[in-house]
Design a protein that fits this description.
- Strands 1, 12, 13, 14, 15, 16, 17 and 18 form an eight-stranded mixed β-sheet that branches.
- The chain is built from ten helices and 18 strands.
- The protein is elongated, with a radius of gyration of 22 Å.
- Helix content is 30%, strand content 24%.
- The protein has two domains: 165 residues, TIM Barrel (Alpha-Beta Barrel); 116 residues, Beta Barrel (Lyase, Ornithine Decarboxylase, Chain A, domain 1), CATH 2.40.37.
- It is α/β, with parallel strands linked by helices.
Length: 378
Amino acid sequence: MAATARILDFLRDRRPEGPCLVVDLEVIADNYRAFRRAMPDTRIFYAVKANPAPEILKMLADMGSCFDTASVPEIEMALAAGATADRISFGNTIKKERDIARAHALGVKLFAVDSDEEVEKVARAAPGAQVFCRILTDGAGAEWPLSRKFGCEPAMAVDVLMHAHRLGLEAYGISFHVGSQQTRLEAWDQALEESKAIFDAMQARGITLKMVNLGGGFPTRYLKEVPGTGSYANAIHEALTKHFGNAIPETIIEPGRGMVGNAGVVKAEVVLISKKHANDNHRWVYLDIGKFGGLAETMDEAIRYPIVTAKDGDEKAPCVIAGPTCDSADVLYEKVPYDLPVTLTVGDEVLIEATGAYTTTYAAVAFNGFSPLKSYVI
């Protein structure tokens, strides 16, 4: 997504100092409406971690969104934005027992689990709560896979949910995440097939599961085209019908990147352009923002952001792009060099597009004394 006219006007009129993120609320509102139209029977739980700006949370709460949270502070942010506790899920499978108790005291009733030990914590701290078990997926087709740290093997989910039932919790459903920035429309099919097998196994034990949490994974456009929201919705509906027939369960989704990614633009500045030896064909372009300033998702060059300059009409050549900190890991693109104008020089501004998600939250610490990324929501 190119920077909106509202963002460009803001940067021109305000001239903010240093690197900053500018987010256009109108784009997020359009994205929410697109999810609502495409999946009218599915509840939307915005993944707060993607961008927890109060303005974003309030607008989404006012529009009727629910919220997927990873911590007590995120739960409190969602409540402060106007969401009621029945619209909040504690979706992290790694929770301190006292945090579960705090969430329960605040009225949250829906918790993610993926092990017997986590079930036992929820049973002690939030008796009677609803739990859904997260299962592992392979993450194929995702630019930021999430397949190892969270979830259990599908075959283990029945035991986890039965344990929850025996401890007085409501075994409510299954969740999975097909990987962030998922580009394969069919990615949900296998996970839904496995979910149906778990539903059947639980039914055979006398327990009816009610919900499938389809997770996130909905992409935003970076350098490559991605399918539209409607295409994902159609593929998911086909998979649900294929595996569940007419008995389609309650479904929820947890869009984060797909909700806010294309709504933000980072304004940055060229600090230095250099070469490493006399005959070096690759310039090194150093920006005043890097991995530790909000662009952590360039790790392993997984996310390749569109970078726009005022000189894009000039000849371009490959270069290495790096951040400003005294850490050798603060290199954004080197394995696959990035084409930038040969006329680019020190002091030039660049716009890093599609940076509305997972930037400010990764830039919360002033590493090397560089200020955390400033954010403006318009």
